[in-house]
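Before going further, learn to read the protein records used in this course. The integers have meaning only within a learned vocabulary of local backbone shapes. The record below shows the convention in full.
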Amino acid sequence: MADTQNTNVQEQDIHQLLKVKREKLANLQQAGKDPFQITKYDVTHHSTDIKNNFEELEGKTVRIAGRVMSKRVMGKASFCNVQDLPGNIQVYVARDSIGEESYADFKKYDVGDIVGIEGEVFKTKTGEISVHASQVILLSKSLQILPEKFHGLTNTDIRYRQRYTDLIMNQDVKDTFVKRSRIISAIRRYLDGQGFLEVETPMLVSNAGGAAARPFETHYNALDEDVKLRISLELYLKRLIVGGMERVFEIGRVFRNEGLDTRHNPEFTLMELYQAYTDYYGMMDLTENMFRYVAQEVCGTTVIPYAEETIDLGKPFERLTMVDAVKKYAGVDFDQIPDTAAAKKLADEKGVHYEERHAKGDILNLFFEEFVEEHLIQPVFIMDHPVEISPLTKRKPDKPDYVERFELFIYGREMCNAYSELNDPIDQRERFKAQEAALAAGDEEANTTDEDFMNALEIGMPPTGGIGYGIDRLVMLLTNSPAIRDVLLFPTMKSLDK
């Protein structure tokens, strides 16, 4: 009963506070001081500009703008803390400096209001760099209540649903998304320097291929056709390689109708690039160099803290075949396994679950997932996957059961996936047939034949290296973020109505 009474009291208090905020706005509007009538405010500096250049700016007039995060009224003089994009700064507001009427208005402003401040840069007796206001203007009235500042916003569900509040209350969250933008900009700069062209390809497609995933489906009313949201960028980018665009990349959203966890969100940012006249070794070199470049540009170092580990992107990345990785960590040499029956027998002995349709190559991959992935902390290229799990990849000439493919693993997570692309249209058609057989056998993630893509391959695609990067996972690594939701501004959430 006591808890219920406390809750009711809190709700009444909040209701009263919200009512007071609206009354304050109404009074301002009646006095001809409606903040929502102000259309602009010329900002000359941000908080960190002032702090980083104090010696140059001391005694000079600046104009800043931001949200009031705290306020301390002391008779004829007050202090408030104003937060902008990069940080926050203290503002000293005195009645004698801004005038009696303006000071009376200022005393009624609330935490959460957005203000414009003009004043001189100075340092207080305690040594804090501040702005001595000569003018304070209310630019926007907050009609809601921010979380209590001392405890911050810690409820993760609210943080993800109300990212705008999260960004206000948690500076480190804002820093993560500023860094995300810088990471993507650095990737673009690097690829531009390597002669790549950035392109855009369709999101609504009739055939969602290029990856093993279940697509989202929708209906295109104008054409009265069922279409899918793309699960990959691959097949359209390869068409451009056929067309003679020798180096192309795209950064864009893809959509996979699958579960949510710390590493997966149904819509996420993928980058794929394709380069003619190179192979998967060329893609390894490009990836290693690009990861180093981006880390140095954004973090200022190639030694990155992540969780309890320190990831060294400066050292040469290890290269290990999938067979050798399984041999190293599971003690099983799949080169000595003669066929699928023997592989299934071994899986039964080791307690590795498989499906009846799985072949030897599928089971090798299951062993890799079960026994190897968690050990791959420092950067390592896992190479030469079985053909069964690589329908778009060129076979190894000396080992046709395997393909020229690699995945980069860091901290036990796949960071990218690359191939020497399959450019043999006859082999590709056979692989599509195998995929369609798998689909008929119940594999909902299998591909179907894309006839227009087949036509493009028959026109002729040069030897090509291709790769796909999970941008969100790279951002997780470089911002030391534990979950994909921490690097997505608006992650997928279950509706509150459900």
